[in-house]
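Field notebook, page 291. I keep forgetting to write these up properly, so this time I am using the form the group agreed on. The chain and the ligand, guanine, are recorded exactly as supplied. Prediction of the bound pose follows.
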Amino acid sequence: MTAKIIDGKTFAARIRGAVACHVSRMKAEHGVTPGLAVVLVGDDPASEVYVRAKHRQTVEAGMNSFEHRLPEEIAAADLLALVDRLNADDAVDGILVQLPLPGHIAEAEVLAAIDPAKDVDGFHIENVGLLATGQKAMVPCTPLGCLMMLQAEHGDLSGLEAVVIGRSNIVGKPMAQLLLAANATVTIAHSQTRHLKAVVSRADIVVAAVGRPEMIKGDWIKPGASVIDVGINRIDAPERGPGKTRLTGDVDFAAASTVAGAITPVPGGVGPMTIACLLANTLTAACRRRG
Ligand code: GUN
């Protein structure tokens, strides 16, 4: 079997198009322009790349983008004061504080300070609780994008066996909650899971979010399963020349794509969906806040 390659780039472009369309209607009919504030502390190069991409795509969708860049050594109290100002700013519908934060700042305290109604990351404990209890929540962007791709592939997920590998607050746990809410039978596997191959091989849906390059092998995958690879790992690629590197996922793509029914590539799979879902969440927050 050769798997269908799930094209996250095209899927994400469709979502961004739909968001842009809705935003332009909001502007024309209600004179409202949704706004997203992104806060970046320090100059981590990977975070810089993400924040630039978020800014560009927010503007392209017709929304206002407010960027706040703070020095690495900023005091936690000053960051919290900025979050308070953004909470109170009516032009700001969504607030995203880019993670990771420097070690001297308690992430949980900062996330808890964000107004849950503006928490477009879905990381605030109130949104975590709402999602876990099946209520209307802001949903973390990466798992939301994964769910959309799975629903596009399968339609109804009821009764399907889903295995999520990874238990992070950002991806693994909310992914499991979303799959559960969609009536899948869900297992969360992680670094301490015994017989991981056996656990993965019974899954109709595999979501890999462990951050270990090509850890999930092709012969672990049930024939015809859908495989969503959240991992983005940079590894050495001597075959491309001395000192060269390449990106790869948590799944051995070459082997898994001969067994799976559908699979996301890395890059070009889950990655583009995350920012598209951030824009969708910002629009959702704007609609809910502004009635
Ligand atoms: N850092 C890596 N991914 C994310 C994300 O989805 N949201 C935030 N706030 N920071 C991140």
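OBSERVATIONS:
- The chain has two domains: 30-115, 141-271.
- The mean pLDDT is 97.
FOLLOW-UP: compare against the apo run.
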